[in-house]
Amino acid sequence: ALEFYTAAAASTDVERVVSGSVSATELIVDNCFTTAYELYEIHLYNIKMSSYHRMQWRAGGASGSTLSSSHYRYRTDYEIRTSGGTSDTGENNWDDSSFRIAYDGSGVGGDYGHYHILNVPEPTKSNRTSFWGFRNQVASGSTGHAQSGGYYNDNNVVTGFRIYSNSGSSFTMDYAVYGKKIS
Q1: How many Å apart are CA 134 and CA 67, to the nearest integer?
Q2: Which backbone phi and psi does 135 adopt, to 5 degrees?
Q3: pLDDT tens, N- to C-terminus, the chain (183 residues)
Q4: CA distance 31 to 158
Q5: 90: which residues sit within 8 A by CB, 6+ positions away?
Q6: Are 38 and 121 in contact (CB under 8 A)?
């Protein structure tokens, strides 16, 4: 006999939580991390800047309080190729005041669109929020990528994040935050 199947309504295992564009000296995204998802994926793209930038976690929701105490531990490795050869370098710190996620700057092509993907598992659990990420560099004189990882060594609930330039220089970027269900 002929049978018909009616598909169940699609579940929201992956959802775009927030997205937009910014042209400023910092990107502040509050209240994007909730208990609705176990894993968050942050996409930063079309980044154009003239100085280095760092990522700093934020907590406190709409109040915009910044977790700026020296509890950030991270390692970022950069691999760059130019017409003259390759270069491998990295940066790390133990008990810093933020994570450094990029080495963008005027020397590596601030007029081109770099791309980052950052993963943040369970940021709303008050138990050492971690992250890992990948970055692609596109510039007229070089190309390369970076891998980074680390954690915030404190027991604060994290509800958002802040991206800013070390020097206070302005930048432009597009961003999107996706929530993902694991179970």
Answers
A1: 23
A2: -135, 140
A3: 555 555 555 467 899 999 999 998 888 898 899 899 999 999 999 888 766 677 777 765 556 778 888 989 999 888 888 888 888 888 899 999 888 876 655 444 455 667 889 999 998 888 788 888 888 877 777 788 888 899 988 888 888 988 887 777 788 889 999 999 987
A4: 9
A5: 75, 76, 77, 78
A6: yes
Per-position DSSP letters for 100-149, written without gaps between them: E-----GGG-TTS-EEEEEEEE-TTSSS--EEEEEEEEE-SSEEEEEEEE
What is the distance between the alpha carbons of residues 173 and 20, in angstroms, rounded to a whole number? Answer: 9
Tell the residue number behind the tokens 């208990």, with chain if given: 35
CA 122 to centroid of chain Cα atoms: 15
Token couple for 4: 């018909």
Residue 11: how many other CB atoms lie within 10 Å: 7
The structure tokens listed for 87 are 């270069």
The phi-psi region of residue 8 (left if phi > 0; otherwise alpha if psi is between -120 and 50; otherwise beta) is beta
Task: Please answer whether residues 170 and 181 qualify as being in contact, where contact means their C-beta atoms are separated by less than 8 angstroms.
Answer: no
| Amino acid identity, position 19 | S
- Look at phi and psi of residue 74 and say left if phi exceeds 0, alpha if psi is from -120 to 50, else beta: beta
Length of the chain: 183
